[in-house]
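Retro notes (design track)

What went well: tokenization of the new backbones is finally stable.
What didn't: we kept losing track of which sequence belonged to which structure.
Fix going forward: every design gets posted as structure first, then sequence, in one message. First example under the new rule, 193 residues:
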């Protein structure tokens, strides 16, 4: 478990760049993104677009099933409003950072960015470099599909997308991103203990 103040600013920036750029500005729902995803889903005849904010992802992860139904989405929105009314943005981000699933190690779930730093890189969260930070932020999207032990190329591609997103948001400059992209994936030896 980590507090918001223990999360390096670069990790916050990486997660926000790839998951919810307007997190500290909206009231829990990004209406423009939600509308765009609703239109895409209607046109595609399936619910596949990822328009959820960090608060919505937290609501779904803590209280709901991952079913892709309209009734679940409505419940998610109601819980999102409650979370936004009861907690500060930093508290919501902290809960999310400790709850988000980031893959598996054997039969053990890796929940939260602190566990992910230890599991994947054998480091404390505050010791991660930019490439490692971007790798963890990138895993949020699909942790098993992007597992760096089983799919290092996918994980590196996603890491590079996160780095590009961080350049777009002004969190880092392009030369920092290029240096991080050039880094090989240095994972800790897999250890289920």
């Amino acid at each position: 478990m980590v507090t918001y103040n223990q999360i390096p600013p670069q990790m916050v920036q990486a997660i926000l760049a790839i998951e919810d750029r307007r997190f500290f500005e909206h009231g829990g729902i990004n209406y423009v993104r939600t509308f765009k995803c609703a239109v895409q889903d209607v046109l595609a005849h399936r619910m596949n677009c990822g328009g959820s904010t960090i608060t919505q992802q937290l609501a779904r992860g803590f209280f709901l099933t991952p079913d892709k139904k309209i009734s679940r989405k409505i419940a998610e929105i109601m819980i999102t409003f409650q979370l936004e009314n009861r907690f500060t943005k930093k508290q919501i981000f902290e809960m999310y950072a400790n709850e988000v699933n980031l893959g598996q190690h054997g039969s053990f779930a890796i929940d939260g960015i602190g566990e992910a730093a230890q599991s994947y890189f054998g480091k404390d969260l505050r010791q991660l470099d930019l490439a490692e930070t971007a790798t963890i932020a990138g895993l949020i999207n699909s942790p098993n599909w992007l597992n760096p032990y089983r799919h290092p190329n996918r994980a590196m591609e996603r890491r590079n997308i996160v780095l590009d997103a961080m350049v777009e948001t002004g969190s880092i400059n392009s030369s920092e991103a290029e240096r991080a992209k050039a880094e090989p994936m240095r994972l800790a030896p897999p250890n289920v203990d």
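Added context from the reviewer: The mean pLDDT is 91.
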